[in-house]
Amino acid sequence: MLRSSIALGCLCLSPAFAPAQDIAAFEQKQLPVLVDTYKQIHAHPELSHFEINTSALVAAELRKSGYTVTDHVGVYPDGSKAFGVVGILKNGSGPALLVRGDMDALPITEETGVPYASHVKTKNKAGQEVGVMEACGHDVHTTVLIGTARTLAANRSAWHGTLMIVGQPSEETIDGAKAMVADHLFERFGKPDMVIGLHDTNTRAAGTVSLAAGPAMASSTSVDVTIRGIGGHGAYPYAGRDPIVLAAEYIVQIQTIVSREEDPREPAVVTVGSIHGGTKRNIIPDEVKLELTTRAFSDQSRQVILDGLKQIALGIGTTAGLPPERMPTVTVQENESTPVLVNDPALSARVRATLVATLGAANVFDEPVTMGSEDVGVFGIAAKAPTVYFRLGAMYPDRLATANAAGQLLPGLHTSKFEPDPEPTLATGVKSLTAVAISLLQ
Protein backbone atom coordinates (compact mmCIF):
# COMPACT_ATOMS: atom_id res chain seq x y z
CA MET A 1 0.00 0.00 0.00
CA LEU A 2 1.28 3.44 -0.87
CA ARG A 3 1.12 6.23 1.68
CA SER A 4 0.41 9.87 1.03
CA SER A 5 3.58 11.79 0.30
CA ILE A 6 2.17 15.02 1.75
CA ALA A 7 3.35 15.66 5.30
CA LEU A 8 1.05 17.28 7.80
CA GLY A 9 2.17 20.64 9.06
CA CYS A 10 2.52 21.31 12.77
CA LEU A 11 0.41 24.27 13.87
CA CYS A 12 1.29 24.76 17.51
CA LEU A 13 0.49 27.13 20.33
CA SER A 14 3.05 27.98 22.92
CA PRO A 15 2.21 25.95 26.02
CA ALA A 16 2.04 29.04 28.21
CA PHE A 17 0.41 27.98 31.43
CA ALA A 18 -2.79 29.65 32.57
CA PRO A 19 -4.61 29.46 35.92
CA ALA A 20 -7.62 27.16 36.16
CA GLN A 21 -10.16 29.98 35.95
CA ASP A 22 -8.87 30.85 32.50
CA ILE A 23 -9.66 27.46 30.97
CA ALA A 24 -12.46 28.83 28.82
CA ALA A 25 -10.28 31.68 27.57
CA PHE A 26 -7.48 29.25 26.75
CA GLU A 27 -9.86 27.03 24.82
CA GLN A 28 -11.17 29.97 22.83
CA LYS A 29 -7.66 31.25 22.10
CA GLN A 30 -6.52 27.96 20.60
CA LEU A 31 -9.70 27.37 18.55
CA PRO A 32 -8.52 29.03 15.29
CA VAL A 33 -5.34 26.98 15.40
CA LEU A 34 -7.32 23.80 16.04
CA VAL A 35 -9.59 24.51 13.07
CA ASP A 36 -6.51 24.87 10.85
CA THR A 37 -5.10 21.64 12.26
CA TYR A 38 -8.40 19.86 11.61
CA LYS A 39 -8.41 21.01 7.99
CA GLN A 40 -4.84 19.84 7.49
CA ILE A 41 -5.64 16.38 8.82
CA HIS A 42 -8.83 16.26 6.75
CA ALA A 43 -6.99 17.17 3.56
CA HIS A 44 -4.24 14.61 4.16
CA PRO A 45 -5.92 11.47 5.54
CA GLU A 46 -4.14 8.16 6.07
CA LEU A 47 -5.57 4.65 6.02
CA SER A 48 -5.43 2.19 8.91
CA HIS A 49 -1.92 0.82 9.54
CA PHE A 50 -0.43 3.83 7.70
CA GLU A 51 -1.04 6.78 10.06
CA ILE A 52 2.54 7.97 9.61
CA ASN A 53 2.10 11.74 9.41
CA THR A 54 -0.98 11.96 11.61
CA SER A 55 0.73 10.10 14.46
CA ALA A 56 3.82 12.28 14.06
CA LEU A 57 1.64 15.38 14.38
CA VAL A 58 -0.01 14.08 17.56
CA ALA A 59 3.36 13.15 19.06
CA ALA A 60 4.84 16.56 18.26
CA GLU A 61 1.90 18.44 19.75
CA LEU A 62 2.00 16.40 22.97
CA ARG A 63 5.74 17.00 23.38
CA LYS A 64 5.25 20.76 22.95
CA SER A 65 2.69 20.67 25.76
CA GLY A 66 5.07 18.94 28.16
CA TYR A 67 3.99 15.30 27.89
CA THR A 68 6.45 12.42 27.97
CA VAL A 69 5.74 10.88 24.57
CA THR A 70 6.32 7.44 23.10
CA ASP A 71 5.38 6.73 19.51
CA HIS A 72 5.15 3.58 17.38
CA VAL A 73 3.28 1.87 20.20
CA GLY A 74 1.49 -1.25 19.01
CA VAL A 75 2.30 -4.50 17.26
CA TYR A 76 0.05 -6.40 14.85
CA PRO A 77 -0.16 -10.21 14.65
CA ASP A 78 2.18 -10.25 11.64
CA GLY A 79 4.85 -8.53 13.74
CA SER A 80 4.60 -5.12 12.07
CA LYS A 81 4.62 -2.04 14.28
CA ALA A 82 1.63 0.23 14.70
CA PHE A 83 1.63 4.02 14.83
CA GLY A 84 0.13 4.39 18.29
CA VAL A 85 1.08 7.43 20.36
CA VAL A 86 1.10 7.63 24.17
CA GLY A 87 1.62 10.87 26.07
CA ILE A 88 2.00 10.79 29.85
CA LEU A 89 1.61 13.82 32.12
CA LYS A 90 1.91 13.30 35.86
CA ASN A 91 0.51 15.96 38.13
CA GLY A 92 0.69 14.82 41.73
CA SER A 93 -1.29 12.13 43.45
CA GLY A 94 -4.69 11.11 42.13
CA PRO A 95 -6.35 8.76 39.65
CA ALA A 96 -4.97 7.80 36.26
CA LEU A 97 -7.15 8.65 33.26
CA LEU A 98 -6.78 7.37 29.70
CA VAL A 99 -8.13 9.82 27.09
CA ARG A 100 -8.32 8.25 23.65
CA GLY A 101 -8.63 9.60 20.11
CA ASP A 102 -8.38 7.59 16.88
CA MET A 103 -6.39 8.71 13.83
CA ASP A 104 -7.14 6.61 10.73
CA ALA A 105 -9.26 7.33 7.64
CA LEU A 106 -11.30 5.28 5.17
CA PRO A 107 -10.89 4.15 1.53
CA ILE A 108 -13.59 6.51 0.22
CA THR A 109 -13.37 9.19 -2.48
CA GLU A 110 -14.56 12.45 -0.93
CA GLU A 111 -17.50 14.30 -2.50
CA THR A 112 -18.16 17.08 0.02
CA GLY A 113 -16.80 19.89 -2.14
CA VAL A 114 -15.28 21.73 0.85
CA PRO A 115 -12.11 23.75 0.11
CA TYR A 116 -10.06 21.44 2.32
CA ALA A 117 -11.42 18.22 0.82
CA SER A 118 -9.11 15.25 0.47
CA HIS A 119 -7.70 14.46 -2.96
CA VAL A 120 -5.45 11.70 -1.67
CA LYS A 121 -5.25 8.48 -3.66
CA THR A 122 -3.52 5.30 -2.61
CA LYS A 123 -3.61 1.56 -3.22
CA ASN A 124 -5.35 -0.94 -1.00
CA LYS A 125 -4.11 -4.41 -0.13
CA ALA A 126 -5.57 -5.76 -3.38
CA GLY A 127 -3.54 -3.26 -5.39
CA GLN A 128 -6.60 -1.23 -6.37
CA GLU A 129 -6.40 2.57 -6.41
CA VAL A 130 -8.80 4.10 -3.89
CA GLY A 131 -9.57 7.54 -2.58
CA VAL A 132 -8.87 8.28 1.08
CA MET A 133 -11.23 10.34 3.24
CA GLU A 134 -11.83 11.23 6.87
CA ALA A 135 -15.37 9.91 6.49
CA CYS A 136 -15.84 8.90 10.11
CA GLY A 137 -14.66 12.08 11.80
CA HIS A 138 -11.35 10.80 13.12
CA ASP A 139 -9.91 14.16 12.06
CA VAL A 140 -12.32 15.68 14.59
CA HIS A 141 -11.31 13.15 17.23
CA THR A 142 -7.57 13.71 16.69
CA THR A 143 -7.92 17.48 16.80
CA VAL A 144 -10.11 17.38 19.91
CA LEU A 145 -7.54 15.08 21.54
CA ILE A 146 -4.77 17.60 20.80
CA GLY A 147 -6.87 20.51 22.06
CA THR A 148 -7.86 18.68 25.23
CA ALA A 149 -4.28 17.62 25.93
CA ARG A 150 -3.08 21.21 25.52
CA THR A 151 -5.79 22.64 27.75
CA LEU A 152 -5.18 20.14 30.53
CA ALA A 153 -1.42 20.68 30.38
CA ALA A 154 -1.87 24.44 30.57
CA ASN A 155 -4.26 24.25 33.54
CA ARG A 156 -2.65 21.76 35.90
CA SER A 157 -3.92 23.55 39.00
CA ALA A 158 -7.41 22.33 38.08
CA TRP A 159 -6.67 18.61 38.39
CA HIS A 160 -4.43 16.05 40.05
CA GLY A 161 -3.32 12.60 38.97
CA THR A 162 -1.92 11.10 35.78
CA LEU A 163 -3.06 11.74 32.22
CA MET A 164 -2.51 9.08 29.57
CA ILE A 165 -3.28 10.61 26.18
CA VAL A 166 -3.60 7.87 23.53
CA GLY A 167 -3.58 8.49 19.80
CA GLN A 168 -4.90 5.18 18.54
CA PRO A 169 -4.29 3.80 15.06
CA SER A 170 -6.44 1.41 13.02
CA GLU A 171 -9.85 1.83 14.57
CA GLU A 172 -11.49 1.28 11.21
CA THR A 173 -9.97 -2.20 11.02
CA ILE A 174 -10.73 -2.58 14.77
CA ASP A 175 -7.28 -3.95 15.50
CA GLY A 176 -5.51 -0.79 16.70
CA ALA A 177 -6.45 -1.03 20.38
CA LYS A 178 -5.54 -4.73 20.40
CA ALA A 179 -2.20 -3.90 18.79
CA MET A 180 -1.38 -1.36 21.51
CA VAL A 181 -2.43 -3.72 24.31
CA ALA A 182 -0.36 -6.50 22.70
CA ASP A 183 2.64 -4.15 22.80
CA HIS A 184 2.39 -4.16 26.61
CA LEU A 185 0.68 -0.76 26.78
CA PHE A 186 -0.29 -0.99 30.42
CA GLU A 187 2.86 -2.79 31.56
CA ARG A 188 4.93 0.02 30.04
CA PHE A 189 2.84 3.04 30.99
CA GLY A 190 0.69 1.90 33.91
CA LYS A 191 -2.97 0.97 34.11
CA PRO A 192 -5.58 3.72 34.04
CA ASP A 193 -8.37 3.88 36.59
CA MET A 194 -10.80 5.13 33.92
CA VAL A 195 -11.04 5.37 30.12
CA ILE A 196 -12.90 8.12 28.24
CA GLY A 197 -13.34 9.24 24.65
CA LEU A 198 -15.86 10.62 22.17
CA HIS A 199 -17.15 10.06 18.65
CA ASP A 200 -18.85 12.57 16.37
CA THR A 201 -22.29 11.93 14.86
CA ASN A 202 -24.44 13.15 11.98
CA THR A 203 -27.63 12.89 14.05
CA ARG A 204 -26.89 15.79 16.41
CA ALA A 205 -26.12 19.46 15.87
CA ALA A 206 -22.71 20.89 16.66
CA GLY A 207 -22.75 22.22 20.21
CA THR A 208 -24.50 19.16 21.64
CA VAL A 209 -23.47 15.79 23.04
CA SER A 210 -25.25 12.55 23.86
CA LEU A 211 -24.55 9.57 26.07
CA ALA A 212 -25.82 6.02 26.60
CA ALA A 213 -25.25 4.15 29.87
CA GLY A 214 -24.65 0.40 29.80
CA PRO A 215 -24.23 -1.49 26.50
CA ALA A 216 -23.83 1.32 23.96
CA MET A 217 -22.32 -0.18 20.80
CA ALA A 218 -22.51 -3.70 19.41
CA SER A 219 -19.76 -6.24 19.10
CA SER A 220 -18.35 -6.64 15.62
CA THR A 221 -17.09 -9.89 14.15
CA SER A 222 -15.38 -10.13 10.76
CA VAL A 223 -15.95 -13.38 8.88
CA ASP A 224 -14.49 -14.67 5.60
CA VAL A 225 -16.45 -17.28 3.66
CA THR A 226 -15.14 -19.23 0.68
CA ILE A 227 -17.76 -20.96 -1.47
CA ARG A 228 -16.06 -23.58 -3.64
CA GLY A 229 -17.49 -25.23 -6.72
CA ILE A 230 -16.30 -27.08 -9.76
CA GLY A 231 -15.38 -24.69 -12.55
CA GLY A 232 -15.98 -25.08 -16.24
CA HIS A 233 -17.37 -23.54 -19.41
CA GLY A 234 -20.33 -21.18 -19.09
CA ALA A 235 -22.11 -23.08 -21.86
CA TYR A 236 -22.05 -26.36 -19.93
CA PRO A 237 -22.99 -25.56 -16.29
CA TYR A 238 -24.24 -29.12 -15.75
CA ALA A 239 -20.67 -30.35 -16.07
CA GLY A 240 -19.58 -28.48 -12.92
CA ARG A 241 -20.95 -26.87 -9.77
CA ASP A 242 -21.38 -23.12 -10.07
CA PRO A 243 -20.03 -21.38 -6.91
CA ILE A 244 -21.65 -18.09 -7.93
CA VAL A 245 -25.10 -19.66 -7.75
CA LEU A 246 -24.17 -21.35 -4.47
CA ALA A 247 -22.92 -18.02 -3.10
CA ALA A 248 -26.19 -16.35 -4.09
CA GLU A 249 -28.15 -19.06 -2.28
CA TYR A 250 -25.90 -18.70 0.76
CA ILE A 251 -26.34 -14.91 0.92
CA VAL A 252 -30.11 -15.26 0.86
CA GLN A 253 -30.24 -18.08 3.40
CA ILE A 254 -28.02 -16.43 6.01
CA GLN A 255 -30.56 -13.61 6.31
CA THR A 256 -32.78 -16.09 8.14
CA ILE A 257 -30.25 -16.31 10.99
CA VAL A 258 -31.47 -13.01 12.41
CA SER A 259 -35.13 -13.49 11.47
CA ARG A 260 -35.48 -17.13 12.53
CA GLU A 261 -32.58 -18.20 14.75
CA GLU A 262 -32.04 -15.19 17.00
CA ASP A 263 -34.28 -14.27 19.91
CA PRO A 264 -36.25 -11.32 18.50
CA ARG A 265 -35.45 -9.39 21.67
CA GLU A 266 -31.75 -9.60 20.83
CA PRO A 267 -30.63 -7.13 18.14
CA ALA A 268 -28.31 -8.69 15.57
CA VAL A 269 -26.99 -7.95 12.09
CA VAL A 270 -25.43 -10.09 9.35
CA THR A 271 -24.06 -8.14 6.38
CA VAL A 272 -22.18 -9.33 3.30
CA GLY A 273 -20.02 -6.36 2.37
CA SER A 274 -17.87 -7.90 -0.33
CA ILE A 275 -18.27 -10.66 -2.90
CA HIS A 276 -15.62 -11.63 -5.46
CA GLY A 277 -15.62 -14.46 -7.96
CA GLY A 278 -14.94 -15.14 -11.59
CA THR A 279 -12.81 -13.56 -14.29
CA LYS A 280 -14.91 -13.73 -17.48
CA ARG A 281 -18.58 -13.99 -18.38
CA ASN A 282 -18.34 -17.44 -19.99
CA ILE A 283 -16.19 -19.12 -17.36
CA ILE A 284 -17.66 -20.81 -14.29
CA PRO A 285 -15.07 -20.11 -11.56
CA ASP A 286 -13.76 -22.53 -9.00
CA GLU A 287 -14.65 -20.38 -5.97
CA VAL A 288 -16.26 -17.20 -4.67
CA LYS A 289 -15.02 -15.25 -1.66
CA LEU A 290 -17.33 -13.33 0.67
CA GLU A 291 -16.44 -10.85 3.41
CA LEU A 292 -19.02 -10.46 6.18
CA THR A 293 -19.52 -8.35 9.26
CA THR A 294 -21.83 -9.39 12.09
CA ARG A 295 -23.10 -7.35 15.04
CA ALA A 296 -24.58 -8.45 18.36
CA PHE A 297 -25.03 -7.31 21.96
CA SER A 298 -24.32 -10.59 23.74
CA ASP A 299 -21.90 -13.49 23.41
CA GLN A 300 -24.83 -15.86 22.99
CA SER A 301 -26.29 -13.83 20.13
CA ARG A 302 -22.87 -13.65 18.47
CA GLN A 303 -22.47 -17.41 18.72
CA VAL A 304 -25.91 -18.01 17.19
CA ILE A 305 -24.76 -16.02 14.15
CA LEU A 306 -21.45 -17.86 13.81
CA ASP A 307 -23.08 -21.27 14.22
CA GLY A 308 -25.68 -20.33 11.61
CA LEU A 309 -23.06 -19.19 9.11
CA LYS A 310 -21.24 -22.51 9.43
CA GLN A 311 -24.35 -24.70 9.33
CA ILE A 312 -25.79 -22.99 6.26
CA ALA A 313 -22.43 -23.24 4.48
CA LEU A 314 -22.34 -26.96 5.19
CA GLY A 315 -25.90 -27.33 3.99
CA ILE A 316 -25.21 -25.48 0.73
CA GLY A 317 -22.20 -27.66 0.00
CA THR A 318 -23.98 -30.89 0.88
CA THR A 319 -27.02 -30.06 -1.27
CA ALA A 320 -24.72 -29.30 -4.21
CA GLY A 321 -23.06 -32.67 -3.82
CA LEU A 322 -19.60 -31.24 -3.33
CA PRO A 323 -16.80 -33.57 -2.24
CA PRO A 324 -15.39 -32.99 1.28
CA GLU A 325 -12.36 -31.10 -0.01
CA ARG A 326 -14.61 -28.62 -1.89
CA MET A 327 -16.99 -27.84 0.97
CA PRO A 328 -17.40 -24.12 1.90
CA THR A 329 -15.23 -22.74 4.70
CA VAL A 330 -16.18 -20.11 7.26
CA THR A 331 -13.27 -18.32 8.97
CA VAL A 332 -13.66 -15.86 11.84
CA GLN A 333 -11.08 -13.06 11.72
CA GLU A 334 -10.65 -12.64 15.46
CA ASN A 335 -8.12 -9.82 15.11
CA GLU A 336 -10.69 -7.80 13.17
CA SER A 337 -13.38 -8.29 15.79
CA THR A 338 -14.24 -6.31 18.88
CA PRO A 339 -16.48 -6.82 21.92
CA VAL A 340 -19.59 -4.91 22.97
CA LEU A 341 -18.78 -1.40 24.15
CA VAL A 342 -20.23 -1.00 27.62
CA ASN A 343 -20.42 2.43 29.20
CA ASP A 344 -19.99 1.85 32.91
CA PRO A 345 -23.27 3.02 34.52
CA ALA A 346 -21.70 4.67 37.57
CA LEU A 347 -19.03 6.47 35.57
CA SER A 348 -21.63 7.43 32.94
CA ALA A 349 -23.66 9.17 35.64
CA ARG A 350 -20.62 11.21 36.68
CA VAL A 351 -19.77 12.09 33.09
CA ARG A 352 -23.35 13.07 32.31
CA ALA A 353 -23.52 15.37 35.32
CA THR A 354 -20.35 17.11 34.16
CA LEU A 355 -21.64 17.47 30.60
CA VAL A 356 -24.88 19.00 31.84
CA ALA A 357 -23.00 21.41 34.09
CA THR A 358 -20.66 22.36 31.25
CA LEU A 359 -23.00 22.57 28.24
CA GLY A 360 -26.44 22.93 29.81
CA ALA A 361 -29.14 20.27 30.08
CA ALA A 362 -30.70 21.34 26.76
CA ASN A 363 -27.53 20.31 24.96
CA VAL A 364 -27.08 16.86 26.52
CA PHE A 365 -29.17 14.03 25.06
CA ASP A 366 -29.76 10.35 25.69
CA GLU A 367 -28.02 8.37 22.95
CA PRO A 368 -29.81 5.26 21.69
CA VAL A 369 -27.74 2.10 21.46
CA THR A 370 -26.26 1.49 18.04
CA MET A 371 -25.28 -1.52 15.98
CA GLY A 372 -22.08 0.32 15.08
CA SER A 373 -18.92 -0.91 16.80
CA GLU A 374 -15.83 0.59 18.41
CA ASP A 375 -12.64 -0.88 19.82
CA VAL A 376 -12.07 1.77 22.52
CA GLY A 377 -13.63 -0.70 24.97
CA VAL A 378 -10.65 -2.99 24.49
CA PHE A 379 -8.58 -0.60 26.60
CA GLY A 380 -11.07 -0.69 29.45
CA ILE A 381 -11.38 -4.48 29.35
CA ALA A 382 -7.61 -4.99 29.28
CA ALA A 383 -7.04 -2.53 32.13
CA LYS A 384 -10.17 -3.63 34.03
CA ALA A 385 -11.12 0.03 34.12
CA PRO A 386 -14.61 1.55 33.69
CA THR A 387 -15.09 3.17 30.28
CA VAL A 388 -17.33 5.95 28.99
CA TYR A 389 -17.57 6.91 25.33
CA PHE A 390 -19.97 9.70 24.42
CA ARG A 391 -21.23 11.24 21.18
CA LEU A 392 -20.32 14.69 19.87
CA GLY A 393 -22.82 16.51 17.66
CA ALA A 394 -21.10 17.59 14.44
CA MET A 395 -23.74 18.85 12.02
CA TYR A 396 -24.52 22.37 10.83
CA PRO A 397 -27.65 23.19 12.90
CA ASP A 398 -29.60 24.73 10.00
CA ARG A 399 -28.90 21.79 7.69
CA LEU A 400 -29.87 19.33 10.40
CA ALA A 401 -33.12 21.16 11.13
CA THR A 402 -34.03 21.16 7.43
CA ALA A 403 -33.26 17.45 7.10
CA ASN A 404 -35.22 16.59 10.26
CA ALA A 405 -38.23 18.57 9.02
CA ALA A 406 -38.16 16.54 5.81
CA GLY A 407 -37.77 13.26 7.68
CA GLN A 408 -34.30 12.74 6.25
CA LEU A 409 -30.81 12.12 7.55
CA LEU A 410 -27.78 14.16 6.61
CA PRO A 411 -24.92 12.20 5.00
CA GLY A 412 -23.51 10.05 7.76
CA LEU A 413 -20.39 8.22 8.81
CA HIS A 414 -18.63 6.17 6.16
CA THR A 415 -20.20 8.15 3.32
CA SER A 416 -18.47 10.34 0.74
CA LYS A 417 -20.45 13.46 1.74
CA PHE A 418 -20.07 13.38 5.53
CA GLU A 419 -19.33 17.00 6.48
CA PRO A 420 -18.93 18.19 10.08
CA ASP A 421 -19.30 21.85 11.05
CA PRO A 422 -15.69 22.41 12.14
CA GLU A 423 -15.56 25.32 14.57
CA PRO A 424 -18.48 24.58 16.95
CA THR A 425 -17.82 20.84 16.77
CA LEU A 426 -14.20 21.24 17.81
CA ALA A 427 -15.02 23.87 20.44
CA THR A 428 -17.66 21.64 22.04
CA GLY A 429 -15.44 18.57 21.79
CA VAL A 430 -12.51 20.20 23.60
CA LYS A 431 -14.75 21.91 26.16
CA SER A 432 -16.67 18.75 27.02
CA LEU A 433 -13.75 16.30 27.02
CA THR A 434 -11.61 18.70 29.09
CA ALA A 435 -14.40 19.25 31.62
CA VAL A 436 -14.98 15.51 31.96
CA ALA A 437 -11.26 14.84 32.43
CA ILE A 438 -10.94 17.53 35.10
CA SER A 439 -14.02 16.26 36.95
CA LEU A 440 -12.55 12.74 37.09
CA LEU A 441 -9.02 13.84 38.05
CA GLN A 442 -9.81 15.03 41.56
From TrEMBL:
How and how many cofactors are bound, per the record note?
The Mn(2+) ion enhances activity.
Q: Quick one: signal sequence residues? A: 1-20
- A single GO molecular function, which one? N-acetyldiaminopimelate deacetylase activity
List ligand-binding residues for Mn(2+).
Answer: C136, H138, E172, H199, H414
| Chain ranges of the Peptidase M20 dimerisation domain | 220-312
**Needed cofactors:** Mn(2+)
Q: Which UniProt keywords apply?
A: Hydrolase, Manganese, Metal-binding, Signal
InterPro entries documented for this protein: Amidohydrolase (IPR017439), Bact_exopeptidase_dim_dom (IPR036264), Peptidase_M20 (IPR002933), Peptidase_M20_dimer (IPR011650)
What GO biological process terms does the UniProt entry carry, in alphabetical order?
A: diaminopimelate biosynthetic process
* SUPFAM superfamilies referenced in this protein's UniProt entry, alphabetically: Bacterial exopeptidase dimerisation domain, Zn-dependent exopeptidases
Q: Which domain of life is it from?
A: Bacteria
What name goes with this protein?
N-acetyl-L,L-diaminopimelate deacetylase
